[in-house]
Amino acid sequence: MSATADHAETNLAARLGFQSDQVVQEIGFDDDADQEFREAIEEQIGSELVDEEYDDVADAVLLWFRDEDGDLTDALVDATEFVEDNAVILLMTPKTGRPGHVIPSDVNEAATTAGLSTSKPVSVGKDWTANKLVTPKAAKTGKR
Q1: Could you tell me which residues come within 8 angstroms of residue 23 by beta carbon, excluding any fewer than 6 positions away?
Q2: How confident is the model over 19-40, as pLDDT tens digits?
Q3: Cα torsion angle, 34, 35, 39, 42, sign
Q4: What is the pLDDT of residues 69-80, one digit of tens each?
């Protein structure tokens, strides 16, 4: 990978909300995951991603999801259990025409049902699309 491509991926990780010293839990990793993007996130946060066995609260979740992985709504609801309120869940789905592609309307419906809001999808590498999901501001709990 060139220094320019590496820098671009790192900037993308920052634009998607990853910050230094965050704990990012990765769910659904498999051989088809974009290794360059994973490394860019690790560079941005300054540590390795933690896996599905991590048993503490994470600052963000990187969720790799393919159509054959089951129910997307359930996966998103489960992912919200791993993070603090208002944390980022970055949903990674295969691009159109790739094995495991998830229809964008299914992503939007699942996110809404799970109580998350979506932003415009972003291309990551040649095979993946990222959807940044967050708890809507209207759903924030008030301070006591």
Answers
A1: 45, 47, 50, 54, 56, 58, 59, 60
A2: 999 999 999 999 999 999 999 9
A3: positive
A4: 999 999 999 999
pLDDT of 86 > 60? The answer is yes
Question: 3-state SS string over 81-120?
Answer: CCEEEEEEEEEEEECCCCCCCCCHHHHHHHHHHCCCEECC
Residue whose entry in the numeric block shows the structure tokens 């291309």: 123
Determine the Cα–Cα distance for residues 136 and 4; give it in Å rounded to an integer.
34
Tokens of 137: 């501001």
**Residue 92 tokens, joined:** 């990674």
Q: Give the side-chain half-sphere CA count within 13 A for 50.
A: 17
Q: How far apart are CA 99 and CA 66, in angstroms?
A: 8
Query: pTM here?
Result: 0.87
Please report, as a single letter, which amino acid is at residue 12.
Answer: L
Q: Which two tokens stand for residue 6?
A: 């590496």
